[in-house]
Design a protein that fits this description.
599 residues, alpha/beta, 7-stranded mixed beta sheet, two-stranded antiparallel ribbon, 55% helix
């Protein structure tokens, strides 16, 4: 969670420092007021975040030529400066000069390593690109274009500074030849926007994964590509990042303080990633413990040196990273704690199957016409909300379906493969369990279409179940290929008396019937009866039963737990996406049962 908080902070600081540093270059040639430069930077940031809803693919299509042009430009400018001012800087490729530098400067040299982190910033978010591109394309692009151009650019600045040490504050823009300054400035500004894109995409990816693990409040995730899973857009996160970016830009007003905060977030993400990678080497890849420790000691020791240098900059702006990441850490931990306690309560208080079946086919309540859908996160059990509903309203629909939604990592799931139906109890209970599988681009619960498909698959299950030689108490059936059972729906109009020659419409009544394929064997009388009852229940209507739970801390809980549950978690729950909105449940067919959990 700490690493996730650092990634989100990185998504705040990267656009701010990239855009502000690029726009600040205009002061080299034009004597503009600092406030005007900040205003231009803020306008560019607003435009950057406004483009996110188009999706990574369309944004990358527009920005890819800019990146290539930018890398070739800084590479060419760097090579020009090396040749023009000091070709001997090419010796800096040797690592011997690094040890010589640290030996001469001592503590000051170690502290300066915090600034060197800005030369490698962006690598900490490269994992986000794995959701958009292949490993091979990233390796080719980095080794063949990115790395050589960056090395030439930094060597060119070093060569320029050996002859012009007074230009240290704006060394990059001062080192650009006069004839190509404005094209280079425009390209730098556009490239800063592109550089921010990868980190924003990384933030979207991490937030989505945390939400799937119940470590982040529910948000709306928009998949912008049907071909690539990782290309997503989260509106709430996008606008929150924009507001925080604007606050950082207007609050610090200079790239030096932002750079101090930025360095801490970059190296913290790298060090946490190294620690987690060592765990993966041992636990997932099944490598020897010594291999994992060698990896951790080699890379971890280098990153710890940079982390120590960055922490020296906490009073000069690094405090912002620690503060903001701590806030996100607390919010994610509290949300995960509340969700885990709720799941434990549901699991502990689930309705025992023996008790439910022991009530008989009527379940000890009045069974009214219609179909009732109960939503749960427990795929194999009946949720406690059902017992709560029966206690307060001892009547339920004649056909009961316990629905559990599952999202899988494919773009779309065909309708014929989406529903897994099983029976709860015997046929007299008229209770079913349905696991609905969705792809990440599918629209959940498409109102009428979802209801029709669900009822049709239950009818298909009934017909196929009759063909089994031995029917188990609970058996599963998934429709595959073309459905053999068809549902025919029609509406009849019942008219009232005529009033001045105008017929007054009283009611529309829906008729539902199932048609079996021609040439099939006659169905059993019991199956025919079930299909008739199911069609009659569908004619009455489908009702969605959702849980609207509230979690509160027990009275004997300590003060910290009461603040976390009664205030922080309650605030997040009130302001996140409601389950009914997430599931796209129609308002006119929804019943919410309220419950209070004490943890």
């Amino acid at each position: 969670m700490l690493g996730t908080g650092m990634v989100i902070v990185d998504g705040v600081l990267t656009p701010a420092i990239s855009v502000l540093s690029a726009v600040s270059g205009i002061r080299v040639k034009a004597n503009l007021h600092e406030g005007l430069v900040l205003a231009i930077a803020c306008l560019v940031l607003v435009g950057l975040f406004a483009l996110q809803h188009f999706g990574t693919r369309k944004v990358a299509f527009m920005f890819a030529p800019v990146v290539i042009l930018w890398l070739l430009s800084i590479g060419a400018i760097g090579l020009y400066n090396v040749v023009s001012w000091n070709p001997r800087v090419l010796r800096a490729i040797s690592p011997c000069y690094m040890f010589h530098f640290l030996r001469m400067t001592g503590k000051d040299g170690v502290v300066s390593l915090g600034g060197i982190l800005l030369c490698i910033s962006g690598a900490e978010a490269m994992h986000a690109d794995l959701g958009h591109f292949s490993r091979f394309s990233i390796k080719v692009a980095f080794l063949g274009l990115v790395y050589p151009c960056l090395v030439l650019a930094y060597m060119g600045e070093a060569a320029f500074l050996t002859k012009h040490p007074e230009s240290i504050h704006m060394s990059f823009y001062n080192s650009i030849p006069e004839s190509v300054f404005w094209p280079a400035f425009l390209t730098a500004t556009l490239a800063s926007v592109v550089g921010s894109q990868a980190v924003i995409s990384a933030t979207f990816s991490v937030v989505q994964q945390c939400a799937a693990l119940d470590c982040f409040p529910r948000v709306r995730v928009v998949h912008t590509s049907k071909l690539i899973y990782g290309q997503i857009y989260i509106p709430e996160v996008n606008w929150i990042l924009m507001l925080l970016c604007l606050a950082v830009t207007l609050g610090f007003q200079d790239t030096l303080s932002i750079g101090h905060a930025y360095g801490i977030s970059v190296i913290s993400i790298m060090f946490i990633t190294t620690c987690l990678m060592a765990i993966v080497i041992k636990a997932s890849w099944k490598k020897p413990f010594c291999v994992a420790m060698a990896f951790l000691l080699f890379f971890g020791s280098i990153e710890l040196l940079y982390l120590f240098a960055s922490l020296m900059k906490v009073p000069q702006g690094g405090w912002f990273t620690l503060l903001l990441s701590s806030i996100f850490l607390v919010l994610m931990y509290v949300w995960h704690y509340g969700k885990s306690k709720k799941y434990e309560f549901d699991l502990h208080n689930k309705v025992p199957m023996e008790t439910l079946l022991g009530l008989g086919p009527s379940l000890g309540i009045v069974r009214v016409p219609g179909i009732g859908l109960i939503y749960t996160e427990l795929p194999d059990d009946v949720p406690p909300i059902f017992a709560h509903f029966m206690t307060n309203l001892p009547a339920f629909h004649k056909v009961l379906v316990v629905v559990c939604l599952r999202s899988i990592h494919v773009p779309t799931v065909p309708t014929t493969q989406r529903y897994l139906i099983s029976r709860i109890g015997t046929k007299d209970y008229k209770m079913f369990r349905c696991i609905v599988r969705y792809g990440y681009t599918d629209i959940i619960l498409e109102d009428e279409d979802f209801e029709n498909q669900l009822v049709l698959n239950i009818a298909e299950f009934m017909w196929k179940e009759a063909e089994l030689e031995e029917a188990a108490l609970v058996c599963a059936c998934a429709a595959s290929g073309d459905s053999t059972v068809k549902m025919v729906m029609s509406e009849s109009k019942e008219l009232g008396d005529e009033d001045n020659g105008v017929e007054i419409l009283r009611r529309r009544k829906r008729r539902v019937r199932f048609e079996l394929p021609k040439g099939c064997e006659p169905v059993d009388a019991m199956v025919e009866k079930e299909l008739v009852e199911l069609s009659q229940a569908k004619e009455v209507g489908v009702v969605y039963i959702l849980e609207n739970s509230c979690i509160q801390a027990k009275k004997d809980s300590n003060l910290l737990k009461k603040i976390a549950i009664d205030f922080v978690y309650a605030f997040l729950r009130r302001n996140c996406r409601a389950p009914a909105f997430t599931l796209n449940v129609p308002c006119m067919s929804r019943i919410e049962a309220g419950t209070v959990y004490y943890v």
